[in-house]
Design a protein that fits this description.
Largest sheet: 7 strands, parallel
CATH superfamily of the largest domain: NAD(P)-binding Rossmann-like Domain
Bound molecules: (2R)-2,3-dihydroxypropanoic acid
Number of strands: 12
CATH class of the largest domain: Alpha Beta
Mean pLDDT: 98
Oligomer: single chain
Helix content: 25-40%
Number of helices: 11
Order of helices and strands: EHEHEEHEHHEHEHEHEHEHEEH
Strand order of the largest sheet: 8-7-6-9-10-11-12
Radius of gyration: 21 Å
CATH topology of the largest domain: Rossmann fold
CATH architecture of the largest domain: 3-Layer(aba) Sandwich
């Protein structure tokens, strides 16, 4: 049997592309532009494996294609809400993801956003670049401290736990968590965290809220106007999870009307076409989905996909099989 035929939907770090080509018959998407639905339907007929990433929307419709050859989708990324998992599963297609290797970097970008939002770094940077800085004064761009404050975390998986470590051990923050299942008390004890059952009981008692739950329909609009109203008006919302977890109109209203103090966002509904009203919110820090964007992590994500493929094609169950 020849080498399995693999399609990589976007450019990957060079080292990983080279490694992948040593074992497989690989087609790279040299244009590095997103594939559309038709491209995916064609690809499913042609390749043994497709390696999509977080921006590749793979709805039920594409799995209705006839003569599907693909047996595994090796997703480059931890989140996989962009793939209709049950449709893939019903055809016996294995789906894998890349957990663990991006937890540090996603936690780092969360702390970046917390600090930037709390210390008004976006406003300050824009002022300097616009040549509008008039010099130091006691009342200039005064923000708020992280140290000693309370951080609420929704979703206490690997990334949430890394955020808690940084916030608790680095900034002495008190940690409250909300998670759909109960967390092992030993895990909570690493950061002296307290689990709260209901989101609505968490929100009034925190200074920062950071989202680390999965995206997809189950968590769409988890944070909307009612939830934002429950938060303190000094509080700051951070989203490095998925855009759909927050209702855009509700958040934009809350930012413009000072229902909450500020927000730090790395992910958006319909990205990269984010709701343009965010651009008018001076109190929003807006990053372009940089959570995992370091050399080390992007390479580790690619090597993790290769590991999953190697396991699959040698007849084992890949360690990161999600369906
Ligand atoms: C993921 O892997 O799901 C991240 O959003 C990419 O940074």
């Amino acid at each position: 049997m020849g080498k399995p035929k693999i399609l990589v939907t976007r450019r990957w770090p060079k080292k990983v592309e080279i490694k992948l080509s040593e074992t497989y018959d690989v087609t790279f998407n040299d244009t590095d532009t997103a594939l559309n639905i038709n491209d995916f339907c064609e690809a499913l007929k042609k390749y043994d494996a497709i390696l999509p990433t977080v921006t590749d929307i793979m709805p039920k419709k594409i799995f209705e294609t006839t003569d599907i050859r693909t047996r595994i989708l090796g997703n480059y990324g931890v989140g996989y809400a962009h793939i209709d998992i049950s449709a893939a599963q019903s055809l016996g297609i294995t789906v894998t993801n890349t957990p663990d290797v991006l937890s540090d970097c996603t936690a780092d970008i969360t702390l970046t956003l917390m600090l930037m939002a709390a210390r008004r770094a976006g406003e300050g940077e824009r002022e300097v670049r616009a040549n509008k800085w008039e010099g130091w004064r006691p009342t200039h761009l005064v923000g708020t401290k992280l140290t000693g404050k309370t951080l609420g975390i929704i979703g206490f998986g690997r990334i949430g736990q890394e955020v808690a470590k940084r916030a608790h051990h680095g900034f002495g923050m008190k940690i409250l968590v909300q998670n759909r299942s109960s967390i092992d008390p030993r895990i909570l004890s690493h950061t002296n965290a307290v689990q709260i059952d209901k989101i609505n009981d968490l929100l009034p008692n925190i200074d920062f809220l950071s989202l680390h739950c999965p995206g997809g329909e189950e968590n769409r609009d988890l944070i909307g106007s009612e939830e934002l109203k429950l938060m303190k008006k000094e509080s700051i919302l951070i989203n490095t999870a998925r855009g759909e977890v927050v209702n855009d109109n509700a958040l934009i209203y809350a930012l413009k009307n000072k229902i909450i103090n500020a927000a730090g966002l790395d992910v958006y509904n319909g990205e990269p076409n984010l709701n343009k009203d965010y651009l008018d919110c001076n109190n929003a820090i807006l990053l372009p989905h940089l959570g995992s964007a370091t050399n080390e992590t992007r390479e580790a994500m690619g090597f993790r996909v290769i590991k999953n493929l190697n396991e699959f094609f040698s007849g084992k169950v890949p360690v990161d099989k999600v369906s």
